[in-house]
């Protein structure tokens, strides 16, 4: 008789995924993915595990962890992508990549506008999400003043560079229309 190791591997994989999700900053919920991710406090002892390979081929996509709570596999993937995006944006070069992705998906600014955004935020913070101007109180990549203005995007703005980038491009769009117009404002006034 040959023992099957498939079920223990699936259970272990799901357990590791849940442990990871429980350890990450849950403010990712500010990103509008369309559906809610529900994490159980503790899985019941009668948990049923759906094989993810079957779920993908039959469009089931849900891993049932008990009688009432479940996590959709697609939602788990979106949370994982958001976590990777935040990690990437914690470096200046990574923040530029994330900003370009967000602009491409939302505002569709051209390469010239992205060059202006790069110049603007290089001057403001060098794309450092921890940047803080102690004399003015300006904070983050976009140097929001005061920093709590970024609460309109998410309350994790102190530690989440993606929140800062989203707020910054939103602010530029609402106030100036384009990064080049915001940059022009800084040339004659010293701020935007």
List the helices and strands and how they pair.
Blueprint lengths: L5 H18 L28 H6 L4 E3 L5 E3 H17 L2 H15 L4 H15 L35 H15 L3 H11 L3
Antiparallel strand pairs: 1-2
Helix pairs in contact: 3-4, 4-6, 5-7
Explained architecture:
Helices cover 51% and strands 3% of the residues. With 192 residues, it is mainly alpha-helical. It folds into two domains: 6-82, no CATH class; 91-189, no CATH class. The chain has a two-stranded antiparallel sheet. Helix 3 crosses helix 4 and helix 4 (92-106) crosses helix 6.
TL;DR of this structure?
The chain has 2 domains: 6-82, no CATH class; 91-189, no CATH class.
One letter per element, helices H and strands E, the order comes to HHEEHHHHH
Low-confidence stretches: 26-64
The Rg value, from CA coordinates, equals 21 Å
Summarize the main sheet.
2 strands, antiparallel
Quote the distance from N terminus to C terminus.
72 Å
Average predicted confidence as pLDDT: 78
Number of strands: 2
Name the strands of the widest sheet in spatial order: 1-2
Strand content: under 5%
Number of domains: 2
General shape: elongated
Number of helices: 7
Key traits:
192 residues; 2 domains; 51% helix; mainly alpha
């Amino acid at each position: 008789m040959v023992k099957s190791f498939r079920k223990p591997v699936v259970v272990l994989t799901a357990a590791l995924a849940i442990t990871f999700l429980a350890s990450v900053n849950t403010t990712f919920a500010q990103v509008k993915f369309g559906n809610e991710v529900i994490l159980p406090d503790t899985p019941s002892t009668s948990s049923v595990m759906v094989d993810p390979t079957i779920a993908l081929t039959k469009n089931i996509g849900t891993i049932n962890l008990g009688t009432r709570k479940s996590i959709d596999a697609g939602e788990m993937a979106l949370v994982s992508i958001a976590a990777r995006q935040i990690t990437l944006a914690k470096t200046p070069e990574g923040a530029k990549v994330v900003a370009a992705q967000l602009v491409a998906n939302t505002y569709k600014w051209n390469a010239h506008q992205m060059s202006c955004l790069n110049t603007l935020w290089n001057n403001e913070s060098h794309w450092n999400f921890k940047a803080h101007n102690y004399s003015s109180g300006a904070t983050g990549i976009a140097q929001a003043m005061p920093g709590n203005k970024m609460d309109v995007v998410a309350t994790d703005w102190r530690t989440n560079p993606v929140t800062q980038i989203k707020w910054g491009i939103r602010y530029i769009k609402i106030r100036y229309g384009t990064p080049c117009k915001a940059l022009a404002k800084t040339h004659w006034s010293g701020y935007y």
